[in-house]
Amino acid sequence: MLSPKIEKALNAQINAELFSSYLYLAMVAYFQDTNLSGFAHWMTLQSQEETSHGMKFFQHIIERGGRVTLEVIDRPQFEWKSPLEAMEAALEHEIYITKRINDLVDLAMDEKDHATASFLQWFVDEQVEEEDNANGIVQKLRMIGDHPGGLFMLDRDMGSRA
Ligand code: OFO
């Protein structure tokens, strides 16, 4: 069984993951609006991944005999000055999510909830990849600077994400 503290924290994480999905969906709209269809494709997959993260928390709560409670999902930002600014915001958001996951692990340890601590390990590893992916794109965009040719090529690369 889940302790009330863990149940509350896991439910809050469902909301955080669904907000991530919503934020990235706002970025899809922004990238479509700026004719960067490769970036839009990449972010569409990212948004879908975030929904699946939310569902992993949903399932874990159910499997542990807890109660899922769904809260309001905040309105995300939907305008950025440049693709670089949008991707920096995505990286910053992933760093925030990593902190949340680490805090959840700390709480699971405090509550001696080994099953939740074990469940969270997948997210600890996933966050390394998530930050690395976003950071890689930020670094490339910084290198590209104001060169449209570079942005065109990166957009093509991002369109091939499977
Ligand atoms: Fe981007 O990893 Fe979930 O939120």
Structure description:
The protein has 162 residues and is mainly alpha-helical. The protein has a single domain, classed as Ferritin, core subunit, four-helix bundle (Ferritin, Up-down Bundle), CATH 1.20.1260. It is built from 5 helices and no strands. Helix 1 runs antiparallel to helix 2 and helix 1 packs antiparallel against helix 3. The chain is elongated, with a radius of gyration of 17 Å. The termini are far apart. The mean pLDDT is 97. The structure holds hydroxy diiron-OXO moiety (OFO). The site of hydroxy diiron-OXO moiety has 8 residues, from helix 1, helix 2, helix 3 and helix 4.
How many helix segments? 5
Proper CATH architecture: Up-down Bundle
Number of domains: 1
The whole-angstrom Rg is: 17 Å
CATH fold assignment? Ferritin
Give the class-level CATH name. Answer: Mainly Alpha
Strand content: under 5%
Sheet with most strands: none
Low-confidence residue ranges: none
Mean pLDDT: 97
Cα shape: elongated
- CATH superfamily, by name, is Ferritin, core subunit, four-helix bundle
End-to-end Cα distance: 38 Å
Ligands: hydroxy diiron-OXO moiety
How much helix, percentage-wise, in residues?
Answer: over 70%
Which structural category do the helix and sheet elements fall into?
mainly alpha
- What is the N-to-C succession of helices and strands? HHHHH
Q: Count the strands?
A: 0
